[in-house]
Specification:
about 170 residues; alpha+beta; Alpha-Beta Plaits; seven-stranded mixed sheet; 3 helices
Length: about 170
């Protein structure tokens, strides 16, 4: 089985080594909440989060050892919730998230283990983003993470190839 989360972490590790981002992890919303609640993880910004499970219908070709799948990455940094969007565009997007997005795209394009199909990425900016549990009337909604983020959400169809050797990235 091809472990996309491990391969993405390994591909992005040189950016972490250069100090371009502080934290990479993967999982669903529950995992995200647990990671931020845990003292085990030193969550530093900006962060890169691979959303699992993979969307669409991931298909693994056993002969060529490759997986066709849709990848969703969240690039996020903490923000000041009182800022208006014009301030966010300067302080978080221009200074942090846009350069990180460019670095991630360039790294993926230069790598042979993760191929962006058709050279197309769906990109969305989400200002002042936070996750909220749905809740019910007797149990009102709660924020899942205590931080407010500015986010770039990038989604793309990809081919992920199994490298010869791949270590789990922290």
């Amino acid at each position: 089985m091809i472990n996309v989360e491990t391969i993405i972490g390994q591909v992005l590790k040189p950016l972490k080594d250069e100090g371009k981002y502080g934290f990479y992890h993967f999982g669903n919303e529950y995992e995200l909440k647990e990671v931020f609640a845990s003292q085990k993880y030193n969550t530093k910004y900006p962060m890169i989060w691979l959303v699992l499970p993979l969307e669409g219908s991931p298909r693994e070709n056993l002969l060529s050892k490759r997986l066709d799948c849709r990848i969703k990455l969240i690039l996020a940094t903490s923000t000041n919730k009182s800022w208006l969007n014009d301030k966010r565009n300067i302080e978080t997007y221009k200074k942090v998230l846009n350069p990180l997005y460019d670095d991630v795209v360039n790294t993926l394009q230069e790598n042979i283990n993760v191929i962006i199909k058709d050279n197309e990425i769906n990109v969305r900016k989400l200002h002042n983003y936070y996750e909220r549990e749905q809740g019910t009337r007797p149990n009102p909604p709660k924020r899942q993470v205590n931080d407010y983020w500015d986010v770039i959400l990038m989604e793309f169809d990809s081919i992920v190839k199994q490298p010869q050797q791949c270590e789990l990235a922290n």
